[in-house]
Amino acid sequence: MQDWWLDIVCDQQWEVALYKDKEGSIIGVLPYFLSNYRGLKIIKMPTLTPYMGVWLDYPSNLTKLESKYSLEKKIITALLNQLPKVAYYAQRHPVFLKNHLPFHWQNYQQTSFYTFIIRKEFLLDCHSNFKSSVRNHIQRAEKTVAITETQDLNLFYELNKQSFQRQGTDIPYTLSFLQQIDEALKSRNRRKMYVAKGKDGHPHAAIYLVWDDHTIYNLMIGADTKLRSSGAVQLLLWTGLQLAAKKNFNFDFEGGMMPNLESIFRAFGGEMVGYHKIYKSGNLFFKLLRTLK
Questions:
Q1: Rounded to two decimals, what is the model's pTM?
Q2: Contacts of 50 (CB under 8 A, 6+ apart)
Q3: How far apart (Å, rounded) are the C-alpha atoms in residues 24 and 10?
Q4: CA 284: distance to chain centroid?
Q5: Residue 124 carries which DSSP code?
Q6: What is the mean pLDDT of each run of 10 residues along the chain (293 residues)?
Q7: Helix, strand, or coil here: 191?
Q8: Half-sphere exposure of 45 (CA within 13 A, CB side)
């Protein structure tokens, strides 16, 4: 939701709808990425951006639930009315936005997505909630690999690429694109890369963590497909959890929809948290395409 991040991932092609209270303070925003598909204008999610949607700043004196829901309806409706007319709209809204009704009333559709989050108040003792297999993986990895912080983005990208190849897909971003993001994050002290290497110096896996003012996100992870059983991935995630505990931040595993990742992340004992993917077809072509898919 930061302008510098959106400038990179949206290639400057983003706008924002605003809602102000009576005093002129901004209490609602809806940033959106304007793109094109076969000559048609669409709003979609930018690359490497898990959440992008409505953000609300609730007044401190708002205590009644009825008043909260009423304000949400008012602000979200006003924000949606500012969106340009497009052939297709799709955004995954932040996890704190639970109210989908204002979208529903304007004929938007909704699909639930899930991630796993360990809240900061549970991080210091989170290992007690690990599935036994996670503890076994971590103990095994501690004997065979060493975790170090790295600045080698090329190495990370190659490991990350292998994870996509294992799933039969191409990596959806280029190294040059990742370099832009990395430079912006590094200059703001908002990221860390860790790599797990065996005693022979061969890299087993690597993780790319980013954070805002309250949460560390497991943005990307990659592993050598031949060394997946070493436990390096679990040890890297445990390293991320320890970093979050040190910063007193939440930890968002950022994933839960793919079966292979869901089973790994779920085993760490975090809370399954739902969030909304909201979409709408304003063009017959996209309606047909959605039906066929």
A1: 0.93
A2: 92, 115, 217, 219, 252, 254
A3: 28
A4: 30
A5: T
A6: 95 96 96 94 96 95 94 98 96 96 96 96 94 96 97 97 90 96 97 97 97 97 91 97 98 87 93 96 74 64
A7: strand
A8: 17
